[in-house]
Specification:
heterodimer; A: 494 residues; alpha/beta; Amidase signature (AS) enzymes; 11-stranded mixed β-sheet; 17 helices; 11 strands; B: 483 residues; alpha+beta; Arc Repressor Mutant, subunit A; 3 domains; 9-stranded mixed β-sheet; 3-stranded antiparallel β-sheet
Chain lengths: 494, 483
């Protein structure tokens, strides 16, 4: 029973609950046990089993009364960047190690209201800054997948939402929240063989999500299949008066609308995404994906996104610039860590020196530099201009196609410790996800196959702004064609 | 002190520009729903946004935008339909976000102009450079603990308008006139209560000196000037200091200086080199602020008559001089009081009564016009009694004194005390005859050429009549009888 409870889809689970095949409490317990069995992955910063079981009991009452909600009792893991009322929220940083919010983020509240049960707060790169989940104050997260060729190596789950991706891949939760600033949901989904979706910028409220780079941050959804991710995103999305950048767009029923075929859809293949040094496996899977969509009735068209090569440097100016300002509030004055000093200046220095890790400090310094008098125009202003050009590239491309197919990441998961001495190399891991982020477009990563090490690789589908439906539709068609069934060897509950 | 300093090397002209921070009258803050009442218990008006808790986001208070546009219109300024909020980054304990949300390159209000009233009765136009919206900081309190400072965030996030003038002001008097007029406009518009003591209006003063008509000198910015008097004193001190330095062969360093009200001097706070690099950039949490022209047009329609318009109307409609008109329009409530009192009565006499008698009396009692026992209608009625010769101007002052104390109608007081003017020729003639009979020596002297004694006879008649005799009639009768 337990392993069955850990591998169902959302729809199957809701049906099973409704038919009393199992209770919400049994479902929750199974996932809590799996979470406990998987502790070595370090996917959780804070486990919340008592709260989860209490909520499960309430779910069982609702089910008994026939008052099931949209996602009743669905086990959820919450990225520890979402503020949760009464539950410690750290952003994986020492500076917020003991911070307990008195408020609940809009997105986590919506998920709660839809009936989901959060079993824990997941590990991440500190303040979501990283692509491998190795910058967390609480230590790195391990990917549940193992390389066939080097099974002794512990692999990264990707980042920054590595804990969430690992939790879903390892069966600890059925769904998990992520955030995506430059690829932080899509890239770990690719590394962990699951689905990860970032909606259009403005689709979900950012209220209560600890800010990294405000003009790029969006909530994301992890699931083990496209339909589950669509069901989850529908709950998360919608206008929020508390976030001025959240849009007043209607939220379509993504899951219902994605199931029509893709005959006649034009799928764009950007020629600039064939970057030097990309592994053959990645190229092969990309080509195969395009073939599959073609077989399903889509038309494959080559498109050009000429400013792609500037995307990563542009991102690494815009995002740190915003972060340097967003993180100024962690000053030891009102909450969080404080390290005393002989005067105010020294208190600031001591607090922030002790509170932030190396990667966060690096980005604060880059951002501060880019915004400084004398450098602002050369860096920040120029980056904003290129950002506009990148947006224009996509706008032109979408004149010719309805969705864009690209690899999600230039590689599969690598070992913990690799690349970590070379920030530039690490930053290039986001080369395929960053452009859509800069343009505010929705993107989804769908598992598309395994590489020669037996590790999952994802393909990304980028949609037009506010057209998640076409994105999901294409992703669903791809998922059907790929029929990805590989799983990491699940850690068995003792 | 005038705009010119007489130095050893000749005349120096004082050049002043002002940056005024005016707290917007609004029930809630610029980007949060927290209340804005002055004087509440520390940290009792702080929302999660104001305390910059993780994940909190600003949401613009539309009413504050309305107030800024209203103010811009009152300053005869251009309203920018597209403006941008930017972050001004610096660390300070009373700045929870680590940045102030302000407007930098694209303010909501552009160039404008206001007219100031100078003590000599002349007016002068002063250019407004811009007005922008920004958040206020909290307050650091340093005197509550030997080694720690306390922070009160009640003010954190309150909406401010920063109003910047062109360097058009010359000397402390003009600076004072500018602040007075600006405050008056804000109060007319009800966009700021203009309360300097509570800090809802604060001024930074940029001072430089130059040879008259020459190139602008290097300026110093003076902070912490919390009253109009302090502004004048600080300008006097600072301009004299600058002239002394230059005349002794030195040069002025651009810097920020602090006014010390107890020592009566300015002192260096930070030099240009030490100035913060605020790293302004557009706030990504807020979209550019777009204001529709129709919104501006609608607000324009609801604008009250502004001080200068009112002043000119008072001069034209009521035939008042510029001084009287300026005094009467100082407060909207005062102008309204005047107009109500003047309705149907001699407007010039009413103006004198409001300015010289009523405001004088209230001032003596430390009362405001709103606390006045005498209503506008009553004051008008009193003037009416003078005009229709029911009482003399002199008696009117006694009646007025009674009105101030009791709040009674002037007619009732006149009736009660029998103060009605005597206009019966026979009665007055009788008194005149008595006075002439009682003062034969003076009559002889008067007739012998001592014309000045006429006043003596008038005084005696008035005295005998208890002040009630009609003075014109007394004059006529005396002249007739003595000549």
């Amino acid at each position: 029973m337990t392993s069955k409870l850990l591998s169902m889809t959302v729809t199957e689970t809701l049906t099973g609950l409704k038919n009393k095949e199992f209770s919400a409490t049994e479902l929750t317990k199974a996932h809590i046990e799996q979470m406990e069995a998987c502790r070595s992955l370090n996917a959780m910063i804070t486990e919340t089993p008592e709260q989860a079981l209490a909520e499960a009991a309430q779910s069982d009452e609702r089910i008994a009364k026939g008052e099931m909600r949209e996602l009743e009792a669905i086990p959820m893991a919450m990225k520890d960047l979402f503020c949760t009322k009464g539950v410690r929220t750290t952003a994986a940083s020492h500076i917020l190690e003991n911070f307990i919010p008195t408020y609940e983020s809009t997105v986590s509240q919506k998920l709660k209201d839809a009936g989901t049960i959060t079993i824990g707060k997941t590990n991440l790169d500190e303040f979501a800054m990283g692509g491998a989940n190795i910058t967390s104050y609480f230590g790195p997260v391990e990917n549940p997948w193992k390389s066939k060729t080097a099974p002794e190596k512990k692999l990264v789950p990707g980042g920054s939402s590595g804990g969430s991706a690992a939790a879903v891949a390892a069966g600890m939760s059925m769904l998990a929240t992520g955030t995506d600033t430059g690829g932080s949901t899509r890239q770990p989904a690719s590394f962990c063989g699951i689905v990860g979706v970032k909606p259009t910028y403005g689709r979900c409220s950012r209220w209560g999500i600890i800010a990294f780079a405000s003009s790029l941050d969006q909530a994301g959804a992890f699931a083990r299949n496209v339909e589950d991710s669509a069901l989850m995103l529908k709950v998360m999305a919608g206008h929020d008066a508390k976030d001025s950048t959240s849009a007043r767009h209607e939220v379509p029923d993504f899951a219902a609308l994605m199931k029509q075929d893709i005959k006649g859809l034009k799928i764009g293949i950007p020629k600039e995404y064939r970057v030097d040094g990309m592994p053959q496996d990645v190229l092969d899977i990309w080509n195969k994906g395009a073939e599959m969509l073609k077989s399903a009735g889509a038309e494959i068209v080559e498109i050009s996104l000429p400013h792609t090569k500037y995307a990563v440097p542009t991102y690494y100016i815009v995002a740190p610039a915003e972060a340097s300002s967003n993180l100024a509030r962690y000053d030891g004055v009102r909450y969080g860590l404080r390290e005393e000093g002989k005067d105010l200046q020294e208190m600031y220095e001591n607090t922030r020196a002790a509170g932030f890790g190396a990667e966060v400090k690096r980005r604060i310094m880059i951002g501060t530099y880019c915004l400084s008098a004398g450098y602002y125009d050369a860096y920040y202003t120029k980056a904003q201009r290129i950002r506009r050009l990148i947006s224009n590239d996509f706008a032109a491309a979408f004149e010719k196609c309805d969705a864009i197919l690209t690899p999600t990441a230039p590689s599969s998961a690598f070992a913990i410790g690799e690349n970590s001495d070379d920030p530039i190399k690490m930053y290039l891991g986001d080369v395929f996800t960053i452009p859509a982020s800069l343009a505010g477009l929705p993107g989804i990563s769908v598992p598309a196959g395994l590489d020669d090490q037996g590790l999952p690789l994802g393909l990304q589908i980028i949609g037009r702004a506010w057209d998640e439906v076409t994105m999901f539709r294409t992703a669903f068609a791809l998922e059907q064609a790929v029929a990805f069934s590989a799983q990491p060897e699940l850690i068995k509950v003792a | 002190m005038s705009a010119i300093i007489k130095g050893e090397t000749g005349d120096w002209e004082i050049v002043i520009g002002m940056e005024v921070h005016a707290q917007i009258t609004a029930n809630s803050k610029l980007f949060s729903g927290a209340a804005t009442d002055f004087g509440s218990a520390p940290n009792s008006q702080v929302s999660l946004v104001d305390a910059a808790m993780p994940g909190m986001l600003p949401v613009l208070n539309e009413y504050c935008v309305e107030q800024a546009v209203r103010t811009g219109l009152g300053l005869n300024a251009q309203i920018n339909l597209h403006s941008v909020f930017e972050r001004k980054n610096y660390f300070y304990p009373d700045l929870p976000q680590g940045y102030q949300i302000s407007q930098f390159l694209h303010p909501i209000v552009g160039k404008g102009v206001i007219e100031i009233d100078l003590p000599n009765g002349e007016t002068k136009e002063i250019g407004i450079t811009r007005l922008h919206l920004e958040q206020d900081a909290g307050k650091s309190i340093h005197d509550q603990h030997p080694s720690k400072s306390f922070v009160d965030l009640n003010r954190s996030g309150c909406a401010l308008m920063e109003i910047v003038s062109e360097p058009d002001l010359r000397g402390p008097e003009e600076a004072s006139a500018y602040l007075t007029k600006l405050r008056m406009i804000l109060r007319y518009l009800e966009t700021c209560d203009g309360n300097l003591e509570e800090g809802s209006m604060r001024a930074d003063v940029n001072v430089s000196v130059r040879k008259p008509g020459g190139e602008l000198g290097t300026r110093c910015e003076i902070k912490n000037v919390n009253s109009i008097k302090a502004v004048q004193m600080a300008i006097e001190y600072e301009s004299t200091r600058q002239v002394e330095i230059i005349e002794n062969g030195g040069s002025i360093k651009q810097e920020t200086r602090l006014w010390d009200p107890t020592k009566g001097e300015t002192r260096s706070m930070r030099s240009k080199e030490e100035a913060h690099d605020y790293r302004y950039f557009p706030d990504p949490d807020l979209l550019p602020l777009i204001v529709e022209q129709s919104f501006v047009d609608e607000l324009k329609k609801t604008l009250p008559e502004l001080p200068d318009q009112k002043k000119h109307r008072f001069m034209q409609t009521y035939g008042l001089g510029v001084y009287d008109a300026s005094v009467l329009i100082m407060e909207r409530s005062r102008a309204n009081f005047y107009e109500e009192a003047a309705a149907g009565h001699d407007a010039k006499i009413v103006a004198n009564w409001v300015i010289n008698e009523l405001l004088g009396a209230l001032n003596k009692d430390g009362k405001t016009l709103e606390e006045s026992q005498v209503t506008a209608k009553q004051l008008g009625a009193l003037v009416g009694l003078i005009s229709d010769q029911t009482i003399s101007g002199k008696i009117a002052k006694d009646v007025f004194a009674e009105m101030i104390d009791s709040g009674k109608d002037p007619a009732a007081i006149v009736e009660e005390k029998g103060l009605k003017q005597v206009t019966d020729t026979g009665a007055i003639e009788k008194i005149v005859d008595e006075v002439i009979a009682e003062n034969p020596d003076n009559v002889a002297a008067y007739k012998g050429g001592k014309d000045k004694l006429f006043g003596f006879f008038v005084g005696q008649v008035m005295k005998k009549s208890g002040g009630k005799a009609n003075p014109d009639m007394v004059n006529d009768l005396l002249k007739k009888k003595l000549n």
